[in-house]
Amino acid sequence: YMDLEEETGEQKETMDGGCPAGRADGEAADSARGQIVFDRVSFHYPESETMVLHGITLKIAPGEKLAIAGENGSGKTTLIKLLCRLYEPTEGRILLNGRDIHTFSYGEYIRNIATVFQDFAVFAFSLAENLAASRRYDPEKVWEALARAGLQEKTEKLPKGIRQAVSHDYEEDGVNLSGGEAQKLAIARAVYKDAGIVILDEPTAALDPYAEKEIYEQFFRHLAEETMISVSHRLSSCRFCDGIAVLDQGRLVQLGTHEELLGQPEGKYAEMWAMQAQYYTSADA
Ligand code: ADP
Questions:
Q1: What percentage of the chain reaches a pLDDT higher than 70?
Q2: Closest CA to 254 of 266, 263, 246, 265
Q3: Residue owning the nearest CA to atom 26 of ligand 1
Q4: Which H or E element spans position 244?
Q5: Whose CA is nearest to atom 21 of ligand 1?
Q6: Distance CA 7, CA 99 (A)
């Protein structure tokens, strides 16, 4: 899904979807920041007649951590593409803080959204540039974001501080980030962008359950105020979220917590969970 982020990059001056370093004006950062409503959203792709989303109505509260679950092809990615304005709903509307997202200018809108991919692409630039996803950055804000993401101490120890190159193996003076540190950098990026909404696209490959729990705890701790939508390609991470929206063939079929949904044995979620348990029997302690 790396190309999702590139596709949103209509404005070419930055690497992460066109948000210039920092928030130029406070306009979209009002008090109601981060509420999203899908209002009877249906959608088919331009090159196809087949409806892939059917009348999705879903309200996501500011600060809520919502997982989107569903089998392959159920519409999870499409829903996120609509939220990122890669396409317009065929029917219905998506509202940000009560306002149809297509009434904002693209640049004004997209600065509300930070996308975090758990592949955590790290570019061959300095730490600060990586964090700001731009050649231009505000050093004070970079340090703030590093502190919030728990990377301040590590950075202070680097000879060049935030100007240290993030390395690939062949760069001798670059800093190598561990997997956990790369995650923290991803968190710091979202913090730096100061977006009210964070979209987290989960890796498709299984992580060990302990590492997975750690990651989600990190994200929730450091992005407590942000609304977070996590696209779950596996179910195991859903239980860390406040709520789970279950899609089945483009329809929203269930909404609830992990426990609530497991308590509905006839439901899609319980069915998927049982399927998955065949593969993860001992790993779910
Ligand atoms: P998920 O993320 O849950 O796996 P997707 O949102 O990727 O599901 O896909 C939902 C449906 O939309 C699938 O039937 C898929 O084949 C279809 N689809 C995805 N992308 C396109 C596209 N660019 N054009 C036409 N159909 C698409």
A1: 79
A2: 246
A3: 45
A4: strand 243-248
A5: 45
A6: 23
Identity (one letter) of the amino acid at 209? Answer: P
How far are the Cα atoms of 25, 185, 214, 243 from residue 102, in angstroms, in the given order? 19, 31, 36, 26
Helix (H, G, I), strand (E, B) or coil at 233: coil
- How far is ligand 1, taken at its centre, from the CA of residue 9, in Å? 21
Asked if 166 contacts 146 with a C-beta cutoff of 8 angstroms, the reply is no
The model's pTM: 0.80
Write the CA distances from 162 to 20, 116, 150, 166, 221, integer angstroms.
18, 21, 14, 10, 23
The per-residue pLDDT for range 75-125, each reduced to its tens digit, is 999 999 999 999 999 999 999 999 999 999 999 999 899 887 655 556 678
Alpha-helix runs per DSSP H in the chain: 2-7, 76-83, 106-110, 127-132, 139-148, 152-156, 179-193, 209-222, 258-262, 268-277
Ligand 1-lining residues (CB < 6 angstroms): 45, 47-48, 52, 70, 72-78
